[in-house]
Amino acid sequence: MDANLQTELEAAAFRQLIAHLQAHTEVQNIDLMNLADFCRNCLAKWYMAAAAAKGESMDYDAAREYVYGMPYGDWKAQFHKQATAEQMAIFESKKGT
To answer: Can you list the alpha helix ranges (DSSP code H) found in 1-97?
Structure first.
């Protein structure tokens, strides 16, 4: 497989991941962090870093809007749920590992 095709396939898979997360707002970031060690905010930071690596200026709010499909504040107001004590305990137990 040539490098251009690989990049196209990776980009398509990334777009599908973003679309999947946008469609599944019931999946909370704390759950993603606890299960997979990344969340929507991580994806936004990676996206922003990739833009910077290519010389593109992008701020964190713009990157999060791309990942969330709307301004972060809107997503948080509509879909964010307070983490439970159990979720936070799992999250805290993973720090430093």
So the answer is: 3-23, 29-36, 40-53, 60-68, 72-79, 85-94
Stated pTM of the model = 0.90
Based on C-alpha coordinates, what's the Rg of the chain?
15
Instruction: Quote the tokens at residue 18.
Output: 């973003």
Q: Residue 91 to residues 1, 19, 96: CA-CA distances in angstroms?
A: 39, 25, 11
- Residue 67 confidence (pLDDT): 98
Token pair, residue 21, equals 């997360």
Structure tokens belonging to residue 31: 């759950």
Q: DSSP label at 95? A: T
Q: Cα(40)–Cα(32) distance, rounded to whole angstroms?
A: 8
Tokens 């301004």, located at residue: 71
pLDDT along the chain (97 residues), means of 10: 96 98 97 96 97 97 98 97 95 83
Contact 88, 30 (CB under 8 A): yes
